[in-house]
Structure formats: C-alpha cells, structure tokens
Amino acid sequence: MTGPLHQVLAEVSAGTPTVAEIIRRTGLSDDVVRAALDHLVLSGRITSTKLSLGCPTTGCGTCPSAGGCALPAALGARRPGLVSLALTRPVA
C-alpha cells in the first residue's frame, strides 16, 4: 500500500485534472488531498501556477469547474480560480 503523498503525486503525474477527480480516484478525503498538494508544493515536488482565465466574477457557483480548483493553501488559502499543477525535476 502506498501513502497519501505517493497516491496524490501519482495522480498529478498521470494528469488527473481536478482535486475532485483525485479524491474520487484515490478514495482520500478532500482535506488529505489538499494537505498532500500543499506539502508537495512546499517541498518542491510540484509547482502551482494560478491561471488567469475563465473564472467568473460571480464566484465558483456558476463555474463549470466548481469544486475542482486545486490551489494549495500554501499559495493562496484556497482562493477560487483554476490552477495548473506540474511535476518538477529533482535537482541532481
């Protein structure tokens, strides 16, 4: 059995598109997935970039990606918006 960090990292690596989908595929809770993403960003294993497109001024309730935003708390305390996550290469 692999731990939550490995499961979440594997899903990001596989291109799983949303936090909701990571939760569904791993069976982990929302809090565990978001904590894992926070840790992976802070440890430099993945990078997080806020995308400046498409978020409605009325908030996530009208967004087709509602609930799928993946901004780690470490980079903005779960502000609404779309975020791109990318794996980083380890420094040799």
Helix content: 25-40%
> Which oligomeric form is depicted?
single chain
The Rg value, from CA coordinates, equals 13 Å
What order do the helices and strands follow? HHHEE
What is the approximate shape? globular
Beta-strand level of the residues, as a percent range?
Answer: 5-15%
Work out the helix count. Answer: 3
What is the topology?
Blueprint lengths: L3 H10 L5 H8 L3 H13 L3 E5 L32 E5 L5
Antiparallel strand pairs: 1-2
Helix pairs in contact: 1-3
Features:
two-stranded antiparallel sheet; 34% helix; alpha+beta; 92 residues
What does this protein look like?
This protein is of the alpha+beta class and 92 residues long. It has one domain (4-87). It has helices at residues 4-13, 19-26, 30-42, and strands at 46-50, 83-87. Strands 1-2 form a two-stranded antiparallel sheet. Helix 1 (4-13) packs across helix 3. The longest helix has 13 residues, at 30-42. The protein is globular and about 40 Å long. The termini are far apart. Residues 70-79 have low confidence and may be disordered.
